[in-house]
Structure formats: structure tokens, C-alpha cells
Amino acid sequence: FNCFLENIIETIDEDVNSRTVELLLRSGIQDGGEWNMFCNIVKKYGLVPKYVMPETFSSSESDSMNNILDLKATKCAHELREMKHSGKSMNEIYKAKHEMVKEAYSILCMFLGEPPKKFDFEYKDKDKKFKCDYNMTPKDFYDKYVGVNLDDYAVIINCPTEDKPFNKIYNIKYMQNMV
After folding, report:
1. Burial class of residue 65 (count of CB atoms within 10 Å of its CB; 0-12, 13-18, 19+)
2. Residues linked to residue 133 through DSSP beta bridges, in sequence order
3. What is the DSSP letter of 161?
4. Are 24 and 7 in contact (CB under 8 A)?
5. How far apart are CA 12 and CA 84, in angstroms?
6. Does pTM top 0.70 for this prediction?
7. pLDDT single digits (tens) 134-149
8. Where are the domains of the chain?
9. Cα–Cα–Cα angle for 111, 175, 25, nearest 5°?
């Protein structure tokens, strides 16, 4: 959601019928995401064991949630573009975007539950001894128990076209990481 709105702001001076803006609005909010977005969310916020935040109906049947978020995102995109065209400053636009992201977070919490800020991690070690780490944050848990350096991994794709020769690195515009 945040990334989508950032892309809308980045293209705010383009005509609404430009191919780029049209693509952004048509793509909207999608279920899933990109590897880099996942990595950056994990690095910033961490992870929790499944029992701490179990599946909900909406996490496995996400169509309704995604439709609501997509409608909200499209409405927000229109509002941000309208603010720009009515002479609002970029500072005001970013303030509005911040509030929009908070609203999207509230919607996600209604569907999925609020992510825990702290939790107790209970487990048995290899010797079958009970252990507990109290008041862990999701970031603490990731750092201590997962500890994989996600920057050691890369996405590799093959999409040869005449304008993109082999053996070079390319970035796909508007597929940036999170903001």
C-alpha cells in the first residue's frame, strides 16, 4: 500500500492516462509481493512463530480483503492526485499519504489481527529441555532464531529482449523495495 502510494506520488505530474499511471492504477494492490519487499519487511519488523499470529480466515481467503484494499488504494491515489492539482504542497500530500497508510494498516488489522509487539517464545532444545525467551519482539526473534542474512539472496529471472542483452543487471521501475 505504502509502495503503491509512493509510486502514485512519483508519477503525480504525469497525465492520468499515461501508460505508467494507467499500469499502476490497473495493477493496484496485489496479493503477495516481490522478494525484495519481503526481505525488507522482515529486516525492518522481524518475524513471529506461527502460534503467535495464527492464520485467520482472511489470510487464507484473501479476496475480500484485497478487494477492499484495492478500492481504498485507488481512492487514495485519486485523492493524492487531486490534492496536487488543487495546489496542495508536497508536504501536505505526504502528510495525507501517511494518514492513508495508517487507515490501510487498520483495515489489515481488522482482517488479520494486530501484529504482536512482544511475545514469549517457548520451545524445547535438542536435549528436550523446556526453554522460554520472554518479551521478545518480532525483530529479536528473527535475529536470534532465524538469523539468515536475506541480503545473501538474489532473485534471478530470464526475460531476454532485444533492448536487454544478457549478462547485465537490470532494475524494474516501480518494483522497488519498501519505503
Report:
1. buried
2. 121
3. B
4. yes
5. 7
6. yes
7. 999 999 999 999 989 9
8. 2-112
9. 65
